[in-house]
User: Which sequence fits this backbone?
C-alpha cells in the first residue's frame, strides 16, 4: 500500500498482483477502496489491481474543492501516470461510474475499458429537484452525515446483511461535511442527470460493461454505447452494492468480458 502526493491532494491506494490489463478500482460516494474486498483477492491472481480512495474519502486527503467527476478523474489520471501503468480497465461503482467515465473521456490514452457498477448517471432529470431539498438541509445541519445515512437506507437489498449495512452507515460519519455537500451536489445536478450524462457518455470510445440493479436502466445505457463490444446487464432484485451481493457471479462475468477484449 502507498500514498501518492499529487499536488494539492494525497491519495491512498493499494497496488497488488500482476498481469495485463491492469485494473483500477474506484468506489462510490462516502465509501472507500474497502468496497472492492470481494473482488481484489480474485483479480490479483491474473491482473495488476490498483484500488484507490478518492479525494475526501477513506485515507486520502480532503482538499477544499475538486469534488466533481472531472476533478476526481484528474486525480486518477495523475496517479496512473505516476505509476506508469499500461491502459487500465477502470471499474467504478455508483459515483465511481461517472468518475471512470470522465477518465475515459478526458484521458482516453489511459483507459482500455470500463466496468460500471450501478453507476450514478443517466437518471431522470427530475432527480435534480431532490437537490433543492437535500443540499440546503446538508448545509444547515449540525451533522450532515445523518441525512446521508438516512438516504442510504433506500439502497439496501431485500436481504442485505445487517453487519454490512452498519459498516456502510458508519463510514458516512467519517466523511468531512464539505465533501458530503460538494460531491452530492455534483451527483444531483451534474453527471447523474440524463440530459447531462447522455451526450457526455457517448464520447466514451472504449468498450463498457455495465451492471444495474434495475434492468430498465441497462437498456437505456445500451442505446448509447460507442463500442460494439460493450454490454449492459440488469440484475433484478439486487441492491445498489450488487458486486458485494453476488461476488462470484460478478467476478466471473467481468473475467469473461475482459478476456473477450483480448487486451493482455
Assistant:
Amino acid at each position: 500500500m502507498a500514498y501518492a502526493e499529487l499536488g494539492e491532494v494525497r491519495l491512498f491506494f493499494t497496488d497488488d498482483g500482476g498481469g495485463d490489463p491492469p485494473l483500477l478500482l474506484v468506489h462510490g460516494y462516502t465509501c472507500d477502496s474497502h468496497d472492492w474486498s470481494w473482488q481484489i483477492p480474485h483479480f490479483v491472481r491474473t491482473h495488476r489491481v490498483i484500488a484507490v480512495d478518492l479525494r475526501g474519502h477513506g485515507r486520502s486527503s480532503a482538499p477544499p474543492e475538486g469534488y466533481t467527476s472531472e476533478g476526481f478523474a484528474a486525480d486518477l489520471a495523475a496517479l496512473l501516470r505516476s505509476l506508469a501503468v499500461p491502459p487500465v480497465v477502470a471499474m467504478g461503482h455508483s459515483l465511481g461510474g461517472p468518475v471512470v467515465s470522465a477518465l475515459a473521456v478526458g484521458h482516453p490514452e489511459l483507459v482500455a475499458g470500463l466496468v460500471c457498477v450501478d453507476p450514478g448517471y443517466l437518471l431522470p432529470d427530475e432527480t435534480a429537484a431532490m437537490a433543492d431539498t437535500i443540499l440546503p438541509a446538508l448545509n444547515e445541519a449540525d451533522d450532515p452525515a445523518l441525512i446521508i445515512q438516512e438516504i442510504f437506507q433506500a439502497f439496501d437489498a431485500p436481504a442485505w446483511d445487517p453487519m454490512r449495512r452498519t459498516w456502510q452507515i458508519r463510514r458516512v460519519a467519517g466523511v468531512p461535511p464539505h465533501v458530503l455537500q460538494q460531491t452530492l451536489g455534483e451527483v444531483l445536478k451534474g453527471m447523474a442527470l440524463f440530459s447531462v450524462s447522455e451526450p457526455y457518455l457517448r464520447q466514451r470510445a472504449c468498450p463498457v460493461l455495465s451492471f444495474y440493479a434495475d434492468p430498465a436502466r441497462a437498456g437505456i445505457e445500451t442505446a448509447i454505447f460507442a463500442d460494439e463490444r460493450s454490454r449492459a446487464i440488469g440484475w433484478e432484485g439486487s441492491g445498489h452494492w450488487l458486486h458485494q451481493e453476488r461476488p462470484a457471479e460478478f467476478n466471473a462475468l467481468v473475467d469473461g468480458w475482459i478476456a473477450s477484449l483480448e487486451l493482455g
Observations:
- Residues 69-83 form the longest helix (15 residues).
- Residues 57 and 175 are 6 Å apart (CA to CA).
- Strands lie at 2-6, 9-17, 23-26, 48-52, 88-93, 111-117, 208-212, 231-234.
